[in-house]
Write a structure and sequence with these properties.
Keywords: Oxidoreductase. This is Gfo/Idh/MocA family oxidoreductase. The protein is α/β, with parallel strands linked by helices and about 325 residues long. The protein contains nine helices and 15 strands. The chain has two domains: about 120 residues, NAD(P)-binding Rossmann-like Domain (Rossmann fold); about 180 residues, Dihydrodipicolinate Reductase, domain 2.
Length: about 325
């Protein structure tokens, strides 16, 4: 019987303590081995809360632990490159929060470092591991809504009053495109099954929030006249929706990026009627952990190779450049 993958968690951010650490604890293929923070008092408190054997007061100590097989990195975006590469050099497999880096160049460097070290690198887009997405792709391939034409995606929330939020630090990789715009961008690439050709994005850069993009709306062009129209924002009324439009119908996907067990349904509008599809419920964070462990142990190929993260960063870069320059940006493959 395969032993569980032993995870070390590098940092005690809310995404770690609120979702990923419970998901690792829930998984049958992984276990929480250690947690590290920049101070031992915080990591000790978290270790006690989750029943973790080891707490470290530095990330370096965590990487030196021979009983840690893999690390989960929930650090601010500007620290991803450094600690992914250092983890790879320490022989640890890496599950890194999205967006994986600040640029496609950084992401490519990280992927190369992990390949050289012989460790697995994955970007933590948990929603792609929910069982509703293979079901969605199968329905699209069945032709039930005809030929695919366009995708619309929205992901917004309002936390503009949280002045100390790391998402509002420009040099740290703040902004709505990095934080949540990456979701509809990656979803369109996933569902179209191709890479984009150009992007045109308009954004609200707020001087009250270190000039990060607090809201962005855009058009992403794919081959064959296909397109993604999206909006993302951290200073707008909360909304999540993904709509896939075909020649003979459309699919409406509520909660496309945060669905779990009891909210995984979606709706197909075709032939003059509507069909509700009750997709299997699951904790996508736990599914992500299980798929990561399967890839590490060679039980299944990775659902997404590190190069997918590089390509998503390439699109994110294009969107940011378009918004900053008020221009259409072409992506050269």
């Amino acid at each position: 019987m395969q032993r569980p993958l032993r995870f070390g968690v590098m940092g005690c951010a809310q995404i770690a303590t609120g979702t990923m650490m419970p998901a690792i604890a829930e998984s049958k293929s992984a276990v929480l081995e250690a947690v590290a923070s920049r101070g031992i008092s915080k990591s000790s408190r978290i270790a006690q809360e989750f029943g973790i054997k080891k707490a470290y007061g530095s990330y370096e100590e965590l990487l030196r632990d021979p009983e840690v097989d893999a690390v989960y990195i929930p650090l601010p975006n500007h620290l991803h490159r450094e600690w992914v590469i250092r983890a790879a050099e320490a022989g640890k497999h890496v599950l890194c929060e999205k967006p994986i880096s600040l640029s496609a160049g950084e992401a490519a460097e990280m992927a190369a470092a992990c390949r050289k070290a012989g460790v697995h690198l994955a970007e933590a887009f948990m929603y792609r591991h929910h069982p509703r997405y293979p079901l969605l792709k199968a329905i699209l391939q069945s032709g039930e809504i005809g030929g695919l034409r366009a995708i619309r995606g929205s992901f917004t929330y309002n936390n503009a009053s949280d002045s100390s939020n790391v998402r509002f630090k420009s040099k740290w990789g703040g902004g709505s495109l990095y934080d949540i715009g990456c979701y509809p961008l990656s979803a369109a690439r996933l569902l179209f099954g191709t890479e984009p050709e150009a992007a045109t994005v308009h954004a609200l850069f707020s001087t009250e929030h270190d000039s990060v993009d607090m809201m962005a709306s855009g058009l992403v062009e794919f081959s064959g006249g296909h397109s993604l129209i999206f909006e993302c924002g951290m200073w707008a009324y909360e909304r999540q929706l993904l709509e896939v439009i075909g020649t003979e119908g459309r699919i409406e996907i509520p909660m496309p990026f945060n669905a779990r067990t009891d909210d995984a349904e979606f709706f197909i509008y075709a032939g003059g009627g509507v069909r509700r599809v009750d997709a299997p419920g699951a904790n996508p964070f736990t599914c992500q952990v299980d798929n990561f462990a399967s890839a590490v142990f060679g039980q299944a190929p990775p659902l997404f190779e590190p190069e997918d993260a590089v390509l998503n960063m390439k699109l994110l870069e294009a969107c940011l450049a378009s918004a900053a320059g008020r221009r259409r940006v072409t992506l050269l493959n």
